[in-house]
Amino acid sequence: MIEAEDLSELLRERWAKGSGLARKYRLNLRQPKVSGANGNWLGVGIGSSVDFQDHRPYAVGDDPRYINWQAYARSGEYTMKLYRDEVSPSVDLVLDASDSMGLSREKLGAAMELFYFCVESAVGQGAALKCYLLDEAGCRFLSLESLRGASWLELKGSQSRGLVPKFEAIPWRAQSARILISDFLYPGMPSELLSRFGMSASWKALLRVYSEAEANPDWNGGMKLVDSETAAERILYCDQAFLKSYRNNYDKHFSLWDEYAQRNAVAYFSVKDEDLLGEQLANSGILSGLIAV
Known about the structure:
Number of domains: 2
Number of strands: 12
Helix content: 25-40%
Order of helices and strands: HEEHEEEHEEHEHEHEEHEH
Distance between the termini: 38 Å
Shape: elongated
Radius of gyration: 23 Å
């Protein structure tokens, strides 16, 4: 587990890198239908934008300023002019803080750089951003002011007892763009774990952080394995047959997440901890739908 002093240094370092990347790349938040507060984004609703959208019948309580009087003169029926009002997108950004995310300094650093990139990219685009820290205890709101500090992230060691983070506790906003950063090392089907993730969302992204050590371990002979979540220990003999079985199960697990993303129109982007995030964004960020051109 990373010591508090080292963690503070890591956060400062990755905030600087993530902020730099946000000046070069931007999240693909611009969608044809998105709602939020008044701002610089086109959304759905009756507004004052000059971008005309459609008509609909007049209803009691509608603003008479938007009645189409020319159509009324022709038909004798009241109809409303619909415009695309100017709005800022709502963005809900969630960081998984389960123990496996802090398995190594490199893995946690990659997660934090990706997190800060998302924060600065959303802020830079004028989004109404809300950030949350998620673990087995629930979901904690993070103010933008706290993120500028060095002590907002707390890893609990082996206290979580391997419980799956409480995804159902995330207060997703209606029509928000939703981003979840995790290693997705949980038992269970993605559709069950993320049952509320896609409900009334304008855009969705799953950002996975992984290390080569967990994806392709080089274990050999007798090994003592320690569960990063529960601290439970197992003694295993690891030969080539065991490693082959492990890698097959690992690949099968993440093929489920890939299938979930494809079926549900989710931007799914994997980040390898030892590679430069900027190069990964440039090489596959656009293809995954995470980065806008």
